[in-house]
Amino acid sequence: MRNRRADLIWAPLLVLSAGLSLSQVLLFDGGGWLSLPMVVLAYPVGRRMASLPLALWVFTAVASAGLVLAFWRTSDPLADWLSVVSVEFALSVLPWWAGRYRRLRAEQRERERGIVAEQARLRERARIARDMHDSLGHELALIALHGGALELAADLADEQRRTAGELRACAVRATHRLHEIVQVLGSADAAADRQPADESIDDLVRRATAAGLRVRLRHDGPVPGWSPMVSQAAHRVVQESLTNAARHAPGASVTVTLARQDDGTRVEVANDPAERPGGGAGSGQGLIGLDERVRLAGGRLVAGARPDGGWAVTAVLPDGGLAGTPPRRSEAGPPAFELGVSRRQTRRRLLQTAALPLGGGLALLAVLPVMQALTVARTGLADERYETLRPGQPRSDVEWLLPPHDIGRAPEVIDMPPLPAGASCVYYQVGDDLLDVGSDVYQLCFVDDVLVSKDRLERA
Q1: Which segments cross the bilayer (predicted)?
Q2: CA 306 to chain centre
Q3: Are 353 and 316 in a shared domain?
């Protein structure tokens, strides 16, 4: 509905752009100053108007109106109509097509950015699934172990021993089912980016320092009582931020801050400006994944440049359990498939858009012979008939030798001879055969309905 309203707003501008071709050719002499307004109007319409059929209708209507006006205005409609169509094509259709091409490319890039962002979110959810597998799998293994120990205890009754055995079997089955679910929801990439089991942020900072990164950790307040998922989200924020600092700001010092505040705990990783060029701009998928993980943990994430030229990533995470929006089930298909569909749709729409100027050109080629035949039949004077004309003949004697119509106003010629005094002149195309017709014209001048001169003129 929104695109339809926008199309109705922009369509009059396209009509004006294409319609100026009629004014430039049929109503003005040398109206070249209208070229710029036509281009300026057509290009933004292509960028904003979504409907291809509506644009096709506008261009076709203007070309048809040009044909009608050409037949009405002159006896040589072919030249005028071709001028209308040529001006419309060059100054309205092509700028509109360029604008529409830019629009379709921008829409494709926007769709692909959304698909890539969704892919990053899905990967982050896969990492979360693997993390849950590690923590829950460990707890289930302990339950199975304790159940097995109870099953072997000598002081238990048979009923209690059977119950302990069922407890152990249930824990084993739950572990297997958890593993199957993670295999379905997870990915091979998720397993490659896991931290060591039960690694704290302090351990992570020590490990980064040992690897050569200039990083220090500041605690502002007591250690928060995070749930496992929130703790893993905090660890992931610090881990990804340290990786980005090492990659994009080599040599810069990094400060990791854990600070308590009213709505939770602030986890901030800030680095100074890079001392030497880094690894270039990233894809942004890491931050998208961090934002998804923090959101699923009930927190919020902010990342951006600092005034001193450094970079900071700040996450505010709730204490205790989850407090945020529950995860929404993604309705998108596999990202790679969606990327392929998006690109195929864009290619199809580009081909449809290109079909307009291409189809218009082919239609013009098909119409040209018909228009040429009509023009020759209406205004063409055969050479042999021209040779039989003699000055001094009455108009009534030569009328039957002439075509039914002349070409109208005097054409622009290279060397116009002086006109006899009081003469009225008419002009005809040279030749009456479709293949032999040329650009020259015959000039016949009459005084008091008597032929006084005849000349063959070369068009300028």
Answers
A1: 54-72, 350-371
A2: 32
A3: no
Mean pLDDT across 21-44: 72
Check: pTM over 0.85? Answer yes or no: no
Domain limits for position 218: 196-326
DSSP bridge pairs for 422: none
Structure tokens at 177: 């089912």
Give the Cα separation of 63 and 419 in Å (integer). 37
Please give the single-letter amino acid code of residue 318.
Answer: P
- Alpha helices by DSSP H, 155-227: 158-185, 188-191, 201-210
The answer to whether residue 101 is domain-embedded is yes
Polymer length of the chain: 460
CA dihedral of 145, 151, 155, 158, whole degrees rounded to 10: 160
Q: Which two tokens stand for residue 234?
A: 């905090």
Task: Read off the CATH number of the domain in which 293 is found.
Answer: 3.30.565.10
424-430 and 441-447 beta bridge pairing: antiparallel
Q: Which of 415, 386, 426 is nearest to 74 (CA)?
A: 426
Looking at residue 93, what DSSP letter applies?
Answer: I
Do 246 and 293 lie in a common domain? yes
> pLDDT digit string (tens) for 161-212?
788 778 877 877 777 676 666 655 554 444 444 455 567 888 888 888 887 7
| Domain CATH for 437 | 3.30.1450
Q: Which residues pair with 450 in a beta bridge?
A: 394, 447
pLDDT tens for each residue of 248-258 = 777 789 999 99
Dihedral angle computed from the Cα positions of residues 307, 312, 316 and 319, in that order, rounded to the nearest 10 degrees: -130
Helices (H), 380-424: 383-388, 395-398
Secondary structure class of 456 (helix, strand, coil)? strand
Note whether residue 159 is domain-resident: no
The amino acid at 404: P
* CA angle (349 as vertex; 346, 353 as ends), nearest 5: 135
The secondary structure element, H or E, covering residue 445 is strand 441-447
**Residue (of 242, 192, 257) closest to 212 by Cα position:** 242
What integer pLDDT is reported at residue 332 of this predicted model? 40
Number of domains comprising the chain = 3
271 three-class SS: strand
Distance CA 238, CA 215 (A): 11
**Alpha helices, DSSP H only, in 49-93?**
52-73, 77-88
Q: Are 207 and 306 in the same domain? A: yes
Same-domain status, 396 and 356: no
